[in-house]
Every structure is written in C-alpha cells, then in structure tokens.
Amino acid sequence: MFPAEALARELLARGLRVALITDKRGGKFSDDMPVQVYRVHAAAMGRSLIGKFRSILTMGLGVFQAEHYLRKLRPAAVVGFGGYPSAPTLYGAVGMNIPIVLHEQNAVLGRANCVMMNKAKIIATSFSHVVGLKPPSHVRLVQTGNPVRPAFVALRNEPYPVLADGEPIRILVLGGSLGALVFGKVVPEALVMLPDALRRRVVVAQQCRKENIEVARAAYAAAGLDVELATFFNDVPERMAAAHLVICRAGGSTIAELMAVGRPAILVPFPHGHAGEQTANAEALAEAGGAWLIPESALTPETLAIRLESLMALPETLVRTAAAARAAGRITAAENLADCVTEAMGGSEIGN
Length: 352
Hints:
Blueprint: H1 2-13, E1 19-22, E2 36-39, H2 49-73, E3 78-80, H3 87-95, E4 100-104, H4 111-116, E5 122-125, E6 140-143, H5 150-154, E7 169-173, H6 181-192, H7 196-199, E8 202-207, H8 213-223, E9 226-230, H9 236-242, E10 245-248, H10 252-261, E11 265-267, H11 277-287, E12 291-293, H12 301-312, H13 315-328, H14 333-345
Parallel strand pairs: 1-2, 3-4, 4-5, 5-6, 7-8, 7-10, 8-9, 10-11, 11-12
Helix pairs in contact: 1-14, 2-3, 6-8, 6-12, 10-13
C-alpha cells in the first residue's frame, strides 16, 4: 500500500484523478487524499484441487467486478503493484485494452507480475536486477526505485546521529506489520550477553507481536534494559532517522525506507516467501554496502550479540554503512513511476 499511496500522491499533484481497486484485505490511502476505494474478490491459488477450483471461481468473480468498475471509471491506465489482489483488475484492464504498468518492488519477480508480464506496456523495478524478469521486446523496462512515503523522503538529509562514547546507542527493531516472533525472542537474549558497560547504553524501540509482547517485556526487564515495546509504531520515519542501527525484515518497502533515510541495518529475511524475495532484497542492499544479512536460521542470541558488540565498537563502520544505504536509494521513485504512468496513458483507447 505504501508505494501505491506514494504514486497516488504524485499523480494527484499532477492534476490526475486516481482510484484504488483492491480486495477486502487491502487498506486505503490516507484520509487527506481524494481517492475512491473499490473492492473486488481475489484469492491466492489454493494447493488442493478443491482449493484451486475455489480460487479460480473467486478470481473470476473479481475480474467481473473489476471490469464493472473500469467501465465506470474509464481509466487511462492501470498500475499493478503485485500480489494476487492486483490480478483481477489487471486482467480486466487487458481485456478492455487499457494499458497496464507493473511495479515490482522486490529483487525477485512476484507471481502476479510474472503472469501479467507479457501484457504490460511498462514494467518498473526497484532493483537493477530482478530474478525471473524476462519480458518480450515490446515491454519497456524502467528502474524507477520503490516509492516511499513523503515522511521518509523529508528525513533524507537528517544526518546520521553521532555515536559518542558513553552516550545512548539507539536500536530500532521492526518485524513487519505484526512484528516478527523471532526478534521478540532473540534480540533481548542477545542484548543480555553484551558487556555491562555497553548494555547500559542501549536504548531499544521494538515492534512485537501482541501475543509475544509481555514475554519480551519480561526479558528486557530482567536485563535492566531501556526499551519501548509496541505492536505498531505510527512514527517509524522519525524513529528510523534517530536510530544508530535497525534490525528488521527485508521487504521491498522496508529496504526502500532504509535507503531513503540512510540508516544501517541488520536484515533477517522472512524465510517462507514463495521465491526467496526478501533474501534477494537483503543481498542487494548488503552488496551495496548498506546492510548486513543474517539468515533467520543463523540468527541466535550468540551470533547477534557478537555482531552488535563488533558494530558498536566501530562506530565509523555504522557511519559508512549508513552512507552506503543512502547512496543506494532513489528518492525520486514516485516521480519516476508517475512518468511511466503518463507515458503509458498516451496509448490508451479508453479514458479522458
């Protein structure tokens, strides 16, 4: 939703009208945006024969609904951000000769974008190389970057916080919208293993699962650590800018936000993605010098404690890594993607 909202803001600023079509799970844009939301049926492909049949029926109904909305809205272009909720509207647009633009935020092509790849007019990517992306010659490829919310862009010039001797070391732990169970267990145990003088300097803000937050709170309390725990933070941009180090997953939006603000991170990719997309994302940023990758299978309190102690002993390494993350970012991603949309609109047979 975040990249889509960033694009919508840019298109609205250019005087274009924008509508959002998603499924019942999809959210909506900020209340200050004049964007109407329409809901369609969508479903991931089931694994069993009956599950597949149900999914096909659900998606067929979604295409029917999407075509109804597209006739009503008469858009000049449709933009898909991947995931099965985008599929019904993209299928409907293709059937009505409405040009489509696909945005791929990960370093591995997602299933929905893979299916629609040959039907697109333009495919916009966040990374220079995307595994599985081999479109035909008539489809234009553009590396736009991954649009982030304006709050992250606004903090791009915020300098990396000075890490002085004896001063607090601020660590931000994020685990996706619901928090990562593994962080709630491993991070407190790792911090307990740090030398006393170093541990007393650590200030943690950590996003936890609701069912795990009290366990994490008890672990931190036992270690005498300064910590703020919550199931969700509404001010992630400001917290990220104030952090000396971020520990997080490696989703496309998270990677883009780290690069926009320019903060070093220990990335622990979600291990159950369909094609290892988070690992590919993390590898791309790590290769650019902007992060360190630790697979979840290797993330133990001992390994994390060793990494944290070594990084905190070498603040210049954190500064260099922050600069590398910032250098890898594309803060004009929303504008770049909006340019792709207006280019695609030029060939539309429907719209106004």
